[in-house]
Amino acid sequence: MSLSEKLIQAFAAFDAYNANDPNKETFEGKEYPKEVLYAVRMTEQLNKYEPNAPDYVQLAARSQHIGRWESPRSSFPMDRKGYLMWRTQLYSHHASIAEKILTECGFDIQTIEKVKFLLQKKQLAQNPDTQLLEDVICLVFVHYYLDHFAAEHEDEKIVDILQKTIRKMTPKAVQATLQIPMTTKVRELIMKAAN
Q1: DSSP string of 138-164?
Q2: In terms of DSSP bridges, do strands 30-33 and 24-27 run parallel, antiparallel, or are they unpaired?
Q3: Contact, 133 vs 57, CB < 8 A?
Q4: From CA 5, how far away is CA 10, in angstroms rounded?
Q5: Domain map of the chain by residue range?
Q6: Is the CB of residue 117 less than 8 Å from the CB of residue 59?
Q7: Which of 68, 98, 141, 183 has a CA that sits 20 to 30 A from residue 35's CA?
Q8: What are the tens digits of pLDDT across the range 22-34?
Q9: How far is 111 from 128, CA to CA, in rounded Å?
Q10: Kind plus residue range of the DSSP H or E element containing 33
Q11: Alpha helices, H only, the chain
Q12: CA angle, 36 then 42 then 43, to 5°
């Protein structure tokens, strides 16, 4: 089986797992399991932003939120410490599911370990592959989720979140953000955060 065939097989397996997500999101009149839609958006954004990304980055992007609903935020204390515990646990959860699926798809140990490394956000800002994945995550957030998120929270909180988001991005990704179609309100919040 060629690498491209294995990638397609892995994407299908990731999507099949995420199809169990009870949370739904409607996009362009069609309802999707939330994490299936997120995974497709990650792949599309990666292909647009870095079309020659290595296979292990493509696999990490597609499985970035795999099984996310199985570890709800509400199962951890609703404070900063609880949030960080939840995120750390999620990284391991995603990596564990991805490892099982990739093993079943016949990927080699080296590729699987690279995917797990990326899903656990190791060496952010030092490792170019981890940074690439983070850039794509931030671009997907701005493109598809920021407008709705901004409508539910105070501007001050959104600006603070955007400042933290921008600090995690490369200059190339920040520039790519400005090419994303967005409402005037969201653009104003981004410009405020960037200054």
Answers
A1: HHHIIIIIHHHHHHHS-HHHHHHHHHH
A2: antiparallel
A3: yes
A4: 9
A5: 1-122, 124-195
A6: no
A7: 183
A8: 999 999 999 999 9
A9: 16
A10: strand 30-33
A11: 3-18, 34-49, 55-62, 80-104, 109-119, 128-140, 146-152, 155-167, 171-177, 184-194
A12: 95
